[in-house]
Amino acid sequence: MPAKIPATVVTGFLGAGKTTLIRHMLENANGKRIALIINEFGDLGVDGGILKGCGIEGCAEEDVMELSNGCICCTVADDFIPTMQKLLDRETAPDHIVIETSGLALPQPLVRAFNWPEISTRVTVDGVVTVVDGKAVTEGRFAHDVAAVDAQRARDENLDHETPLSELFADQVACADMIVVNKADLLGEAEAADLVEKLRRDSRDGVQVIKATMGALPLDVLLGQGVGAETDMEARHEIHHHHGHDDDHHDDHDHDHDHDHDDHDHHHHDHDHDAFESFVVTRPEIADPTRFAAQVAEVIRAHDILRLKGFAAVEGKPMRLTLQAVGPRVDSYFDRPFGTEARETRLVVIGQAGLDRAAIERALSA
Ligand SMILES: Nc1nc2c(ncn2[C@@H]2O[C@H](COP(=O)(O)OP(=O)(O)OP(=O)(O)O)[C@@H](O)[C@H]2O)c(=O)[nH]1
């Protein structure tokens, strides 16, 4: 049976920067066939328009599909499943599917829909990426334009509309496999670091929290998380169930809409290139794959490495040992015999700028 096609779910409040992040990803897809599904709930398909008109090479119009309006729980059979099937039945199936949940305050119902038998054998949720507006969260507003978010979620039948944004935010964080603290350009260094720390504490173990400006993240960091989120929904609790009646939580936050934060600094493009770095570490054969995987996991933890991948040569084994690490999770398996390439261990390390390359090289070579 062919491998399941990975699908990444991108969530976050209106204005957090989901579309910007997806645009950046499509612009840097490097030949990877990415299909995009947009759930423009109760909206005018504005995002679809923007993305279709993006003029990005390799981004064909038929690669963008839109889900019709309506509560995902109720329309899953009529809309979401057929859309997915259409995508999967194409002659050339996409390499990766990205779903932008524009109109959904919470991603859980969508992720759950991947368990439907019609599609569950063919696609899997590679990971849930929660994009947050770093500036707004720091200020306790959670979204740039609180009034617009309120208006949008008033149309979301999934939610009890009294729920404070802070709680919806907590649910988005609980569902995340990766949290992107976007609009880092509007935050000071210390402010950004504090927010990253806080979100690390508030999210599940192993969730990566990454700063970004204009959603500029390497494809290798964003995609290929390999989580299978639909299979562990219990861990991604959501407080607000479908048409649920929640206790009467009211927060006393004075949602001050009058902040004027439109003085955005547009010099951030200059920093895109310095935000992340990657390098290759090579070493001779390793002796023990299990010990080496543990060693890799330790290095990843100690140095806050986002991704590490490559292969190892194992003493006495003709096969290459493929290694893939997303955060502290290290997967390894023997994939094929070495061919003409050198019989050595070769690992690509990816992280936010400022990695201690010398120390990492030493630790991986020990
Ligand atoms: N200063 C700053 N502005 C940003 C950044 N990322 C996005 N923006 C701006 O924030 C606004 C909202 O970004 P979008 O990408 O449309 O947000 P979204 O989450 O897709 O919003 P919806 O699709 O409407 O739910 C746009 O004006 C972006 O240009 C960033 O990192 N820094």
TrEMBL record:
CDD domains reported for this sequence: CobW-like (cd03112)
Residue ranges of the region described as Disordered: 240-271
GO molecular function list: hydrolase activity; nucleotide binding
Residues of the CobW C-terminal domain: 276-366
GO cellular component, one term: cytoplasm
Compositionally biased intervals (Basic and acidic residues): 244-271
InterPro entries recorded: CobW (IPR012824), CobW-likC_sf (IPR036627), CobW-like_C (IPR011629), CobW/HypB/UreG_nucleotide-bd (IPR003495), P-loop_NTPase (IPR027417), Zinc-reg_GTPase_activator (IPR051316)
Known catalytic reactions: GTP + H2O = GDP + phosphate + H(+)
GO biological process, one term: cobalamin biosynthetic process
Keyword set includes tRNA-binding: no
Keywords, alphabetical: Chaperone, Hydrolase, Nucleotide-binding
Role of this protein: Zinc chaperone that directly transfers zinc cofactor to target proteins, thereby activating them. Zinc is transferred from the CXCC motif in the GTPase domain to the zinc binding site in target proteins in a process requiring GTP hydrolysis.
Protein name, per record: Cobalamin biosynthesis protein CobW
